[in-house]
Amino acid sequence: MNAMGTHRWPLCHDHELAEGQVRGFDPEGEGQDTLFVLRHEGRLHAWANACPHMGVPMAWRRHAYLNASGTHVQCHAHGALFDKASGLCVQGPCLGQSLRRRELVVDQDGQVKVLALMNKI
Fold this sequence. Notes:
Layout: E1 6-13, E2 22-25, E3 35-40, E4 43-48, E5 73-74, E6 81-82, E7 89-91, E8 101-102, E9 104-106, E10 111-117
Antiparallel strand pairs: 1-10, 2-3, 3-4, 4-8, 5-6, 6-7, 9-10
Organism: Hydrogenophaga taeniospiralis CCUG 15921
Pfam families: Rieske
Protein name: Rieske domain-containing protein
């Protein structure tokens, strides 16, 4: 924990997420993935694993966060589609709402870490 009250939870190494790939993570050991990370256009994006419409987990199975064509993040509960880079809902009952972004850092060794405030992610 640093002086600002944040903790950096290690997730994976930068090279473990190829372009277009998505992985879910459970950094605090809650028994289910609480966030997911995807690589889109070379950048890593992290989102809380909760639909803004119903608060339910997004994936229909582990690491399955994208629609069939891989163009959008999709909520398994009602099919809402979200932009991969912005998290904005572009189709579905939560149109105009966004996924909650999670802050990532990649250290000099390529370790991807998520920032958490006082054990809340």
